[in-house]
Fold these 2 entries.
Entry 1:
Amino acid sequence: MQPVLETPIEYLKGVGPQRGELLRKELGIATFGDLLLHFPFRHVDRTQFNTVGEVADENSAVQLRGVVKQVRMVGEKQARRLTAKLTDATGSIDLVWFRGLRWVQPLLKEGGEYIVYGKPTFFRDHYNLAHPEIEAAATWDDGAATPLQPVYSTTEKAAAKGLNSRGIGKLVQALLPQVGGSLPETLSLKLVEHFGGISREEAICEAHFPQGKDRLEQAVARLKFEELFFIQLQLLKQKQLVQREVKGNMFAHVGDLFNAFYQHHLPFQLTGAQKRVVKEIRKDMGSGRQMNRLLQGDVGSGKTLVALLCMLIALDNGFQAAMLAPTEILAQQHFRSISRFLEGLPVQVRSLTGNTKAAERKKLLAALQEGQVQILTGTHALLEDRVVFNNLGLVVIDEQHRFGVEQRARMQAKAQVPPHVLVMTATPIPRTLAMTVYGDLDVSVIDELPPGRKPIKTVHRTDQARIAMFDFLESEIRKGRQAYVVYPLIAESEKSDLKDVMDGFESLSRRFPLPQYAVGIVHGRMPQEVKDYEMARFIKGETNVLVATTVIEVGVDVPNASVMVVENAERFGLSQLHQLRGRVGRGAEHSYCILMTGDKLGNDSRTRIKTMVETQDGFKISEVDLQLRGPGDIMGTQQSGLPQLHLADLVKDADLLQEARRFAQWLLDKDPEIADPANAPIAAALHEQMKEKAVWGRIG
Ligand code: ADP
Ligand code: MG
């Protein structure tokens, strides 16, 4: 970084120690450089006004000019709020503040003229503006020389000390001449031209104080692109390094086991997508480089079979393979289905979980070390140090979301040459997000379901329909089918959740009494053995209905289950609902998903339910989820994989992100070392960035 940009912020004229401390603590601005990158989140267009009469919907923000009257403090305690009326030639609109009252009130002078900006809310038959930005018309007119005025985010505390949007703007204005000439170009000439010929320095100035709307747009596009481009470049560079430096086992041929299985044991035709993905993986494992691949495929798309085919290739090349699952139930299920697939073939498959008895484990571990066990499935138990392979060549990790980077690393450490890694996830991640969070992995996608799957009929019902819903369950049970009834997760603190599940279990048990029927229950507070026992009963068909919390969310495969009832469906996230629904529709029968909610739904809940009713496409659902929740929440504990962005937005700037990825790839293809003098600015900037934030990308 240029030294001037590293100057502590208190040295800027107009800051000093006290405000310096505030800027640091409240806004994370510690240096000149930080302030420079504290971009406004929008610009006020001083030339565009609306009238009160034009206020007509909740979606578009309005800028109004009028006289403030009836400034009142109303309500008590939590309901305390500040209200006022703003009147122009066409009418009046209510302004209301719930927070920061002490700070806003002194600004409002009855009879004074003000400019307000905000999004209207429709409440009790009329529109009002809650927490509008507000400024006295007199000071507004002073600033009229800059038609597009920046609006900066700030905090109440900072604003109270003069660091409101206007105050920050003044600081930026003081800063710009000081850093002029010391902001080096970071893109090649070609790229600069592609983005309207605006240099980095110009772009930064324009993004704060634009000369006009077009320039502002161009500048922001350039800066956003730049942000995304360097993230992609780092990820791809990382991948390039791993590919070069980490040798992998060469799975040179596809041999007897694979062929025998493929020709004689495959119970059905592979889907086109399965074939394509197996080919991609085969090529990867045969390249001599270590494979680090993410396999995305919707629930029920047949990932297990793909994993098995890949494991057979490992075996054909004299290696062992391991498959990890996040839960005991899933591990057992993998073990069973893989054993069944391989019946009649000379392959030793074993399972190792926390429940494996000591004597058996001892034998198993010895056989594993000697190489007699070829495929080992299991849970976290596989990660323990005492689990030693003879020659581990491929690790398959199912349901990625529950496995961290650390576990991957531990698995890899079990072989001298790092084994190939295939990570499978059934929670589709939107493309743009995958590109960023898993940008250093190769990604394969199974985008096709096996033929003959009947769509799962999904409906939304409220409590009034409960009796009818029970009757429907009965008719399905009479046909020999099974049903899940799922309640929201039991968290340690939420006693009421536990009560809900227990009540639900009781009323279902009453409606479906023994001995004719059997209802089981699985919830998060049960000991693991009891859970496993209850699950096993359901899998064997001994219970007709399973009342459960989300413990069944991931991967469980009971083809005979045809109904999924989700209680309090409004409390579930989209990806959870999608996972839950994926538990049915696995057999040949028609399947149903019934989403039960209360009568009143918030906007987001309604969108979620509607999306579920309308589509079964996991990728579409994940896109909606991303819109609703944003990248941080979607990635959950893997948030660390998300980069810090100043301007770009992974949701709104998806197109720009794709463009950035393409350019980064194109650049590395043409100039792998970034040594071409024309790309010198890029090389320098990349070097700077990699030095700065000891790469957040993950190493395979
Ligand atoms: P997931 O991708 O959710 O892990 P599974 O691997 O559990 O899906 O597969 C779901 C079901 O589909 C299994 O019963 C499996 O045997 C079956 N299946 C997989 N591939 C095919 C195919 N090509 N044709 C028909 N059924 C298939
Ligand atoms: Mg699976």
Note: The two ends are 29 Å apart (CA to CA).
Entry 2:
Amino acid sequence: MSQANRSLVTIDDLSNREIEALFCLADEMSGSMSDQSGLCQGKIMASLFFEPSTRTRLSFEAAMLRLGGQVISAADMGATSLAKGESIADMARVVGSYADIIVIRHPWEGAARVVADYAGVPVINAGDGSHEHPTQTLCDLYTITKERQTIRGLKIALCGDLKYGRTIHSLTYALARLGAARIYFFSGPGVEMPAHVLGKLTQDYGGKLIKGPGDDTQSLAETLGGQSVDAIYVTPTDSHQLALMPGVQIKVDIRDGAIYVTRLQKERVGDTGPGAASKKDYPVIDARLLRRKGLERTLVMHPLPRIDELAYEIDADPRSMYFEQAARGVPVRMALIALLLGAKELIIPQEEDSLVQKLDYHVYEGDPGVKCANRLCVSNQETEARYIKPKFKIVSLDPLTLRCIYCEHELHPQYIASSDWHEGKLENKKYHSAESHWIRKIKPENLIIFDSENEAQARGFKPSKYVTVDR
Ligand code: CP
């Protein structure tokens, strides 16, 4: 499939083979950065950054300029008509008529999906709230691949703020898909990996989660020093939880590994939110830690910006990769823009493309009905709720699990009914427990899902004898 005119909203929008081929193109770009100015001549990129950014915004803009294109930008939501109550969809339609490609960073989870739905031109997600940051993941994977030649079989540790870190979420999915042998999660108190990310890992990628020791886990330094880990991606929190996935067991010495560090996402945690209180306990990657046995060749990775979690003393250490990650953002983003604008094409054999797991989930539109429970989801914002219908993938029937198509948070609704209830008989208009046999009996296209019994009754349904189920 051609990459032209596609969007990159989540890392799953690129197949494994496309990611690998994109890295070959990035190699080509970095080898002759100043010779690419004919590729996107006459094209315009809209750069919309409604949250602060140094690396992502400027590397995207540098990439477009290197390709011979031009850039229009908005970096302050307050200076756009969004501040006057314009919807994201209307903004997307308008900007899509001015530019050939849009790069957007927005604080609402799922905002990039909405822009992609309405813009009519390729859209690249440069970070949507705590959801995903797929191009950072491309830079991360490119760096690991340059240093270690492969992702397959590596052991990677992700540490710190796993809850709000969008780079962590995209990277976790990609590592699982690309065959990392194990991913270790070291989260800080209150900023553990969210249930919906773990759910996707197990549901979509067959990951096996193993709960590690509890709060009495030894310090991060001791734990890392005792493990055979290939990559460590650390965020600034105390370690108290360890989970491992998936089940593939390939021994790789920690000396071939990497440490990936990120900062606490203070803009999402606030001064009083989960994780904020434990700032003093956040692990610091410093020269002392890197002297530990087993970390001799471990890469230290961080998406930047750093706060306190990476000591400046290790900047010159050959294991420190964070400035390389940032620098590689230009050729990686040049390759991506060239592909989405059709200036370059990757020929991927169909059978190779099937390396990415294609999951054909039924999509449920809950209107009226269930709503996403994530208050930061774009579907729950006043300006957007006027036109966005909540939409979910039904990812499991046992228990009934819906995944919001915008922010990917999960819901477990309790009540269901069938839309072909009546057959002319009002007494058949019944609702049932989602745990009853009806969940398998009702055809997906006839399924109605309720947040509560009140809602079912408000819509004229009566409780069936299967409204409660003995557990
Ligand atoms: N890594 C990253 O997204 O950096 P910026 O916030 O500076 O773009």
Note: The chain is about 30% helix and 20% strand.
